[in-house]
Design a protein that fits this description.
This protein is 63% helix and 13% strand. By secondary structure, the protein is α/β, with parallel strands linked by helices. Helix 1 packs across helix 5, helix 3 runs parallel beside helix 4 and helix 5 runs antiparallel to helix 6.
Amino acid sequence: MKIFIVDDDPLARLVTTNSLEEQGFTMIELEDGQACLGRVEEQPDIIILDVEMDGLDGIATCRALRQDGHERPHVLFISSHDDMETRLAAYDAGGNDFLVKPFMPDELTRKIRQAIGQLELRDSLASRADMAQTVAFSAMSSMGEMGAVLEFMRKSFLALSPRELAQEIFNTLGGYGLQGAVEIRSPDHAPLHFSCQGTVTPLESAILEYARNLPRIVQSAERMVINYPLVTLLIPQLPQDDPDRVGRLRDHLAIVAEAAEARLQALGTENLRLAQAEAIVQAVTQLSVTLEEIEKRQQEQRLQAQAALIAHLHEMEDAFVRLGLSSEQEHSLIRMARAAMEDQSASQAGQETLEIRLREVVRALNRAIQGKAVRQ
């Protein structure tokens, strides 16, 4: 502890110094208030200040200290006057304690110990307040940084291609004041490389190809790599002056990479479904064309069969004259021929029913493709 002893009486200063000399304090004797103000930048912990001094007295000295912003020093007034007016003036000036002359050494020591306890408590509270402020600022910064992550997650859902997704990653990096490169992999094509700078340099490509085989998160002094099965994110230049921010960025960017991974998986599923839907559309279209061709050919075949049967009946009737058959034989043959025609007509009716059912199936598929509800 550094203690200023301010008194215009050398003997009084000597008495005070002797009372505290065995306590291990650093003590500086000053002869008046002006001298005290001139050396206050040396940051004393305790100022023992005489109220009655020639020139700038103790009350004025303490008031000047507090007005100049020196709030930390503990000011202990000493005075030969024990009236309420002097005590109130000392309090109004910003004093912390009061001691009446003459005083016993033990009384001064007790006052100093109390002052030390108050200073230690004040310093502890100030340290905690600073720590709480630091934590609060860090939390607010983290919330702002997390907002960028949430914005990326929202926009990534709208990305319809690896290039659009890479651009959203770079937008997020730009919000953090960072640059980077990304590799996006897919079973359907070779790995794609993208860079904040636009054109991917051969060196960036080589680093990305090497980095894809590294663990999930690898961080060196200035560089960080984040790996997922479909995404590798390379950050070449991390801020070096704020380790706490780097730690937060590592967490945030890991979430960004994981969200990009999820979007790529969803894109793969969507592309597969689109391919399947396209195949179904093509199959249904081909089925409709084929069904129309079948109906056309069957209609032609039915007409041809009916014409052939009618011609056959006429030939039978003409042959009856030449064969010399009896009326009963002729009627029997005609009944057999007509029965065959009826059987053929029944078979054609069954085929038409099947064609109708097939046509309904095609219509239902077309409605399903167009997103319409299929009602039974």
